Each structure stands twice: as C-alpha cells, then as structure tokens.
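Look over this today:
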Amino acid sequence: MKQEKLESIIDTAKKMFARYGFRKTTVNEVARMARVAKATIYNCFGSKESVYLEVLRSEANEIVERISSAVALQVLPSDKLIAFVKAKFHNMRQAVNILNLDQEEVGKFLPDAKNIREELFERQVYIIRSILQEGVERGVFYLKDSLSTARVIGHALKGFEVKQSVQASEARIEYYLDDLMNTLFYGLMSSKRDVNA
C-alpha cells in the first residue's frame, strides 16, 4: 500500500478518535472519511485497536520531535529547559488522543496504549536529563542526580498537563509555567539554608 494512503488513514483516524473517542469511533467511519475500503484498513492494521495504537505512536513521535526542535534552538541550559516545558504543553494540547487516554480508561483494556504513554514520558525524561547534565557541566545547575531530578520534573509536569492542557487558556498556562520555572530555578527559600538542620 502506498505511504500516502497509510498516512491518510492515520490522519483521519487521529481526528476521529480525538473527536469521538476510542469507543465511538468505528472502522467503517474511518474508512469512509479516509476514502478507502474497510478491508484496506483491516489488511494494513488488523483491527481498530491497532489503528488506535498507531495514532498514539504518531502523536508521541510528533511531540518528541517538536520538543527536541524547540530545545535545539536554544543555547543556554536554562533556556533549553524553559523551551522544553513550553513546547511540551503547547504540543500536548494538540495530542488529544494521548491526553484522553486517562479519561477514556483505554489503558485498562488496551495495555499497549498505556505503554506508549509511558514510553513518551521516558523519552521526555531523557530530554530533561540531557538538559540538566549540560547545565551541571556548564556550572549553571547544581544537583546531585540528574536522572532523579529529571524524573521529578517530568512527574510534576505530567500531573499538571492533563487538566491544564485541556481546560486552561494559553495565557493561563503561560502564567503557570512561568511560575513553575521560577520555582524550579530559584526555589522557595529566600536564602540557601540546610534543609536537614
């Protein structure tokens, strides 16, 4: 099958899953909207679940590519981290199917969907870690364990993303992100103290 036809099926399915959800979207409707035979979809993907997983992989890859591109445009590690956070939230708003995973509870009956979401998280942690390591090497950041710190930042952002990405306005998200980055960079305390004291 031609690549254009596969891309058309995935693009159509992405829009339909985003609009109607996994359960309400049918292969018949995807085939009709993509202008292909239903049998073509089954021959290429095997099932509606496989189409859905391919849509999720596509969204995850797009998010990582766009975040990586935004980070690559920056020079300073602090600017790279800010670019990461802003690109992540901007692009997650567009990745409706990934955001809807929790709401639709698809992961309960389609474990591979949950795995794609977890792989996306790990890919993001890897980007954060590389930024943090560069910052440590350049004397910009001080931290003991870049992987643990990257995971903490990743989890903080993940907890923030679902509700805020869908419900908040762009301006509100920018405000929250600026506040988050200020807290991350400058901390909560007015001067450096021994937290174990």
